[in-house]
Bifunctional protein FolD
Amino acid sequence: MANILNGLIVSKEIKQEIRAEVQKIIANKRRPPHLAAILVGNNAASKAYVNSKVKDCEEVGFTSSLVKFPATVSESELLEKIQELNKSKKIDGFIVQLPLPAQIDQEKIIMAIDPRKDVDGFHPENFGKMALEMDSFLPATPFGILTLLEKYQIETQGKHCVIIGRSRIVGRPMSILMGRKDFPGNATVTLTHSYTKDIEAHIKKADIVITALGDPYFLKADMIKENAVIIDVGITRVEDNSEKGYHLAGDVDFDSCQKKASWITPVPGGVGPMTRAMLMKNTLIAYKTSVYND
Ligand code: GUN
């Protein structure tokens, strides 16, 4: 039976540490950190994510602002708002919730964010620094996974890590981070994607599997190696007959995999709450390094 990598417990500890730091900041008569979020359109999952970020800010003692635009917003309006947030002395970090509508060039938007306020770690300057093992903001989900591995002292050195999915938010940065000269890191990494041939042959050889596919219950026990470490980043809304009308499903068939794995993340309560906590951590880092925080 696998041990649980409990993101709920670890994220609570991290948020408590952040809250304690914020209380000291306030006791010293300084303003608390401020995170802003830009939300475009009506995507239900995006709205839920952004609302939970606002709630997390309240919990740790940050102030926050939510800037909403209709799905019809123009690229120039969005760029103008980003410039305003870049210049604001009261905002330490901000995120632009992805995905954006088709008329908006996502790369142009991300490039416009001041890297010092890019608490998502999506700007090429931060991404490049991450790849070169320089100090930078790390994207929240990969940062959360690294923190979980570190807290539970999961050995990664020399291990074979198979990552499923090469998104800019999870798979690609994760593939870089697991190969860095660090702990957690020093792994041999295989980054698989939609063109990978015989993905199951790769997964079967993995000591660590990190799946960010968005395909509910894709990973079954017969696909993994005995004692593998299984990290499930998938969170898909699956419609059902419940009051809510849906439940959240991971990429992993937890019930079968937990019998074979050594460590496993549940969904919910695994990577999701870690992502949220690490965004708070990045915002605190942005605040501490900001030239405007006094
Ligand atoms: N959409 C899904 N995950 C994320 C995230 O971590 N940051 C942003 N900005 N958008 C997302």
